[in-house]
């Protein structure tokens, strides 16, 4: 029996915008694996404040963020809860072939997630070496992305951290765009629908300092504040210089 075409099996949302990156991952799977993944996957709407991974437990699903922002949270020895990571569009959460999670994952905003049932997916990977290899390559990409976020927090000044964060999100948005951003000199849009208090905690500063950094960047013409949650990068090169990160200064402008 012939295996149906990929486009007929997986949601159409995986062909556009943020979902396209995930769709490309499944394109690398064998036809039989794609058919099985389609059977065990679904789109889920998550409300802000909902916990999708409980610390110490194995998650039922492997999730890919299509829209919204999730926070990785860890309880410190003194009882305080700290945001140790942000999951934005195309980021993955959930562990496979391993024990429980060392942190919880909570939706900081309303979000949409593409979910794959973990245990059946583990069986697919065990039985299909080509699909397992494609997935492992994707995991390595996730590790590289995580290193960028770690470097972001290494900025000594709040302004450096904010500039690096905007550049990371802007570059990711450009890579995901369907040609509307790449190849032109138009401003790069950045969506950051997260409470300033949560973002300040993640960046290791206060909400007041965060607001001052955003307004300073706007006053110099580097970004434009559309509203509290939406920005545009106007001067990519100048923002990269402020970030103090060689990977941005020497890297390509996402609009080129």
Task: Describe the overall structure.
The protein has 10 helices and 11 strands. 42% of the residues lie in helices and 21% in strands. The strands form 3 sheets. It has a 4-stranded antiparallel beta sheet with strand order 1-8-3-6. Strands 2-7-4-5 form a 4-stranded antiparallel beta sheet. It has 2 domains: 8-151, Jelly Rolls (Sandwich), CATH 2.60.120.10; 157-249, Winged helix-like DNA-binding domain superfamily/Winged helix DNA-binding domain (Arc Repressor Mutant, subunit A, Orthogonal Bundle), CATH 1.10.10.
Oligomer: single chain
* CATH class categorisation of the largest domain: Mainly Beta
CATH architecture of the largest domain: Sandwich
Radius of gyration, in angstroms, nearest whole number: 19 Å
Output the number of helix runs: 10
Largest sheet: 4 strands, antiparallel
| Gap between N and C termini | 46 Å
- Provide the residue-averaged pLDDT: 80
User: What general outline do the C-alpha atoms trace?
Assistant: globular
DSSP E strands, number? 11
Low confidence ranges: 1-8, 177-184, 246-256
What share of the residues does DSSP label as strand, in percent? 15-25%
CATH superfamily name of the largest domain? Jelly Rolls
Strand-and-helix sequence, N→C? HHHEEEEEEEEHHHEHHEEHH
């Amino acid at each position: 029996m012939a295996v149906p075409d990929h486009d007929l099996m997986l949601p159409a949302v995986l062909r556009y915008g943020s979902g396209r990156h995930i769709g490309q991952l499944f394109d690398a799977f064998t036809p039989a694996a794609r058919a099985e993944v389609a059977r065990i996957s679904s789109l889920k709407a998550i409300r802000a404040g909902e916990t999708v991974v409980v610390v110490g437990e194995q998650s039922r699903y492997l999730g890919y963020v299509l829209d919204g922002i999730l926070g990785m949270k860890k309880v410190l020895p003194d009882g305080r809860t700290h945001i140790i990571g942000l999951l934005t569009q195309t980021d993955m959460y959930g562990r496979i072939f391993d024990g429980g999670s060392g942190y919880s994952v909570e939706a900081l905003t309303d979000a949409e997630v593409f979910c794959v049932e973990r245990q059946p997916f583990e069986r697919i990977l065990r039985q299909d070496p080509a699909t397992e290899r494609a997935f492992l390559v994707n995991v390595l990409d996730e590790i590289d992305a995580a290193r960028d976020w770690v470097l972001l927090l290494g900025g000594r000044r709040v302004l450096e951290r904010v500039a690096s964060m905007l550049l990371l999100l802007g570059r990711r948005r450009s890579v995901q765009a369907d040609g509307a951003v790449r190849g032109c000199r138009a401003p790069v849009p950045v969506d950051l629908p997260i409470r300033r208090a949560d973002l300040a905690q993640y960046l290791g500063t206060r909400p007041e300092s965060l607001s001052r950094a955003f307004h300073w960047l706007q006053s110099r013409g580097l970004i434009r504040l559309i509203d509290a949650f939406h920005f545009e990068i106007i001067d990519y090169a100048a923002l990269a210089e402020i970030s103090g990160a060689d990977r941005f200064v020497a890297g390509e402008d996402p609009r080129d």
